[in-house]
Amino acid sequence: MLNHLYSLRKIFSNFHPILAKDLAYRIKKREDKVISHNREYFVQRVCTRSPLTYYRNNNHISVFPPSDRVGSVIDVKSFEESRDELFSLDVVLGKSFFDQFAELQKNVPMPCVRQYGSSYNSEYADVNSNAKTFYLTRCSTNSENIAYSLVVKNTSNVFYSVKVQ
Q1: Torsions phi, psi of 73, nearest 5?
Q2: Which residues pair with 152 in a beta bridge?
Q3: pLDDT over 60 (residue 5)
Q4: What is the pTM of this model?
């Protein structure tokens, strides 16, 4: 990892001197962090970048907690069928944009999880593509038989792992 940071410093040193000095300071600060902390610390940091908490919302497993800020939560197939409907809200000039946006967000149904491409037997997995038999897995693609994992790519039969390729 340190070699990668040194090569970045070398590449960016050809740019504007003030930017290069600022970048050199940031890279040095990152190097000091890498040296001063152990590997588990960085694994924890990677795992906590994205929300790994799932909630029971409207009889679905969802990343959205039951609250008044989010509208109804529906399953992925229902969302795909209804997303072509136009959801609109009349703009009121005297009202705050953020209040109107919050009202629109309450009226639009949200999918309980996000799945891209073809997914099979992966109802309890979020932000995955081409998933086959995923369970409580997030940010994975082109894999099968994955459970309790984060960022798994082009792999099969993985359990309780982070960043597997």
Answers
A1: -110, 125
A2: 164
A3: no
A4: 0.56
